[in-house]
Fold each of these.
Amino acid sequence: MRSKLLSSSISLLLASSIYAANITQVQHDSSWYIDAQEKLNSKIKHFNNSTVKAKNIILFIGDGMGISTVTAARILQGQNKGGFGEENMLSFDTFPITGLSKTYNTNSQTPDSAGTMSAIMTGVKTKKGVLSVSQDSLRADCKSSEGTRVTTALELAEDKGMSTGIVSTARLTHATPAATYAHTSERGWENNSKLSKEALEYGCKDIAVQFIEFSYGDGIDVAIGGGRREFMPRDAKKVEGKRGKRTDGRDLRLEWQAKYPNGHYVENLEQFNNLPQNTTRLFGLFNPSHMHYESDRKFDKDGEPSLTQMTKKAIEILRKNNKGYFLMVEGARIDHAHHAGNAYNALHETIELSNAVALADKLTNDEDTLIIVTADHSHVFTIAGYPKRGNPILGKVQGTDEHGLPQTQDTLDANGMPYTTLGYMNGHGFINLGNEHDANAVEDEPIHTGHVDIKNINTQAPGYHQEALIPLNNETHAGEDVGIYAKGPGAELLTGVNEENFIFHVMQKVGNLIEK
C-alpha cells in the first residue's frame, strides 16, 4: 500500500495509508452481500459464463431516471428530430440486455441517492442518507459509524491497479459521486462547516477532505464536475462571484495540486479544452455548486463542458492504463429538475445522458468493456391523459375523436380547462405561479386550491412547472423499480429483477475486482 499526503494549505505531512481495499468483515457477513453472491453464482451457472471478464467498466447513473422519465425523454428526442417521437430510441434503449433494480433503502420504502448509490457501489443495502457505511450506522451519528465502513468498487479497482474516474454534473461531494469514495453517516457533511459537534468530537471527516485524502492505489485519476465551494475556504478569492464554504482555512484545490504535482486542475471550459494530450490525472471543478442544466450551460460565466464532453475526456485519459479502468458517470440534474417539478430540464438532461452513453459506446469495445446504465431511484412523474400519437410530450393533451382521428383542440378536464400530458404526484407545481411558472420560485409563495388555467400558457417553455396533486416545496422520489441497460462482458447477469446492491456483485465479478 502506497503512502499518501495529508495536506493543509500551509504544510504537507507524510503519513501512511490506513486502509487496504478489502471487503470488510461487516460487508462480507451482511445478508445483503451473502444473498447477492448466491444469486450471482446461480446466474453464472445458468449462463455458463464463469470465465468472462471485462477490462473496463463504465457505470452510468441517471439520477432520478425512472421508467417514465426514459419514455418521455425518448419521445421528446424523437420529436426534436421531427418524428412522432414514440418510435424513437435513446442510445441505451438499444442495448441488448435489460433488467430491473429494486431501489428501497433498509429503512425507507422510497429511497434517497445516498443509500441507493452506496448499495450499487458496495454490494450491501444501507440506510437513507448515509454513504458507504453499513445499515448498522445511525444517520448523522459519527460514533455509531465506527466499524461500519464498507469497501466500494472504485476502491477495489484502484487497489487492483486500474485507473478510476468520477464524472458528475452535481457537486463531486454530492451523494452519488461521494458514495464511490467517501464513508460517512451523513451525506450533508460535504465540507467542514457542515460537521456536527458530535462529528468533530469523534473525528469524522467531511466528504471533500475524504476526497483529497483518498489513499487507495495511486488515487482517483479523473474527477470532474461541480462543487468548487466545498473545497475552498471562505476567505479565498471569489471564483465566478462565489466564495468557498470551508471554515478550517484549508484550500483543498491547492492540496490536490501539491499531492499530484503532475496532475492538471481546471475550473472552466477553456482550461478543459486546452488540456495537454499527455494528461493522465485530472481534477475539474466547473461551478461553485452543481453544474448548469444542459439547456442553461451557455449562460455559465466562465464556461463549462457538457456531460458528453466530460465523459469523452475521462475515457481518453483512463484508457491509457493497460490494466483497464473503472468510470462512474452521473447525469445528476435529471433529479434536480424533477424535484423542481420541471419536466423540460429533466428530459433534456436525460437526452444529454443518452448522448454521453452513445459516445462512450462508440469509444469502447464490447469485447472488453462492460457498460451499465441505470438509475438510483425514480420520481413521482407521470405520462397520462390519452394524448394522440405524436402529441408534443411537453404540451397540453390533444386526443382523438370518436373515430380515432386526431383532434386539434385541447382535451378539457372536468372543470373545462386544458391539462398537460406530464405531471407530478406532488411538489412545487401545486403552488400558484401565475403565467410565469418561474423555475426559481420561492418557497413561501401562496398555495391555491384549484387547477391553474393554462390555456394561454406555453407549457413547453424551459421554466414551466407541471402541475402537482399534493403541495410540497420539493417533489419527492418514488419507490418503484428502475431500469438496468447493459452491454459487454457479463451484461446478461443483470437480466431479471434484481436488488440494487446486486449491480456491485456483477461489476466485482466481471471486472475481477477481488481483494488481494
Note: The domain at 17-379+488-510 is CATH 3.40.720.10 (Alkaline Phosphatase, subunit A).
Amino acid sequence: MAHPFASTLASHQQPLLIAQVNHLPIVADFARRLDVVGIVNRLVPVQMEVQPGILVLGMVLDTLSGRSPLYHLEQAFSEADRTLLFGEALPAGYFSDDNAGRVLDHLFEAGTQGIFSALSVAAMDHFALSAKHVHFDTTSVNVYGDYPNAEAESAAAHITYGYSKDKRPDLKQFVLSLLCVEGGIPIVGKHEDGNASDKAINHTVLGEVVRHLREHGVAEDAFIYVADSAMVTEENLARAPRFITRLPATYNACEHAILAAIDADRWTEVGAIAATPPTKARPAAIYRVSEQAVELYGSPYRAIVVHSSAHDKRRQKRLERELAASLTAITAQAKACESKTLCCRADAEVAAQEAMAQRSAYHRLQVSVVERPRYGRGRPKRDGVRTPIAMAYGLSAEILEDQPAIARRRQMAGCFVLLSNVPSIGDDGYDAELILRTYKEQYAIERNFSFLKDDQIVNALFLKRPERIEALGLILLIALLIWRLMEQVMRSTLKTTESTVPGWDNKPTARPSAYMLTWTFRGVMVLCIGQTRQLHQPLSATQQAFLRALQIPEERFLYPRSSA
C-alpha cells in the first residue's frame, strides 16, 4: 500500500526530505519558551552573518541529541529538518565549525555567567519555579591537554592539578559549582579554580547567593541554603542565612550528638523517603531521626541525628573490618607478651600490668603471671619427681573483647548528623523529618553532575583554549537547564492531574525522567515536501501521553515556529 504522502510527492515533483527528529522538537519548544535565541542575541553582540542565539540553540539541540556534541555539527544539521527545529530555513553551512568556534569566543567575551543568569531568570519566571530550597555543590571536571597558561589569574577556567573527585590526579581539571532550585534545575553555574577548596567556594557563593536570588525576587529569609559538609566553617556558619548541611564526623560535636541520641533512645520513625520505588537489587533505605542541640563556635544549632538502614549495612561491614584489624593487633601483642621470661615475680607482676595497659581499638588483654620452673640436667628420679633448681616467671595472656565499646559502635553505625539553624516551630518551622527530607533533595544536584560528565553528553574535554571550555560549559548548562525543565514540567503536570505515563516496561509512573522521554520518542520521523509535513507514522499512545504531560501539542512535530 502506498504511503499517503506519495501522491503529494508526485503532484509537486519536489524533493522529499525525510528527517529523523526523535525528541528534538520538544527540546526546541522548551528553548522557545525560555527565549534562548532572543536572550543570547541580545546579550552577545557580533559582527557575523549568523545569529549567535541560533548557533547556541543548534549546539544545545546537538548536545541533547544523544550523539557527540559539537562533532561535525554542520554534517549533523545537513540531515535535519532545520526549518522545523529553528523556525526558518537555514543553510547547513550556518553551523560550520568556524561559525561555532567564533560564537563560542563571543559567548566568553559577553560573559557566560551573565548569559546563564538571564536564562535562569526567564526559567523561574516562565515556569514559576520555587526557590524555597537552594542546593549547592561542586565537582571536578577533567581536561586533556597541557594548557600551559591556564593557571594565570586572568584565564577563564583556571585549569590546574588539584584534588580529583573522579580519582584522576594525573589530569588537570577545573571545578564546576552549581546552584539549583526545585527538581535540580540549575540557576547558577560557575567555573572555579581546579585547585579551589569546597570550603572557600562555599564562602564565596554564600556572598553571592543572596544577591542572585534577590534578582529573582526572592528575599533572604524566604529560602534555605542546602549544601554538603564543606560548608561547615566558622566563617560560613556566621555568614549563612537559613541553612541545612551535614556536620562533618571530624567535629567532636558530631559524635556527642550521636551518643546523646543513642542514650536518649527517642527516635522518630520516618521510613522510606526515596521517590523511586525500591527494587530487589536496591531496597529502600529506612530512616529514623532524633533531634539534639549542639554548639559550634559559640553559637547554638539544631543537630538532627539520622539513622539510615543503608548506611548501617555499609558501616557494619566497615566495623567488622575494624574488629578484625583490632584482633590482629591485640594477637600480636599477646604473642609478644607470652614470649617474655623474667627472673623474679615482682618483675613479672610489673610486666603483666604494663601488658594489660596496652590495648587495641576493641580488644584488651587479661594477663596473669605463670611460673616456669627450671630443672637441672639428667634424668628424673625413678618416681618421676623433679626438683627445680630455679624459678622463672612468664605471662599468660587472654584476649577479651571490649563489649561496651563494640555495642556502642554498632549502635552508632549508620548514623550521621544534619546541622541547621532553621527553626522547628512557627509558620516556616521545619521538624526533624522535614530537615532530613529537604537535605535528601541534594541528590538531584548529583544527578546534574552525572549528566554533565556523561560520555553520551560530552566526551573528555579537549579544547584549545580555556575560554572555549568555559563557553562550552555554558552550552552544557543551557542543555541541562532545558533537560531538567522538561522533567519538572512532566512530573508537575502528572502530579496536578493525578495521572501517570507508561514508563520502563510499560509500568505506570508519575515521575518520568528526561531520559525516559528521549527513549520514548526515538525513531520519530518527519516527511517534508516544501512547506508540507507529515509524520512517517502516527505518534503512539505512549508518545501522546508524554506530550500531554509536557503540555506540548502534537503539531510541534509538523508546523515550524520561530525560535526568536
Note: Residues 1-12 have pLDDT under 50 and may be disordered.
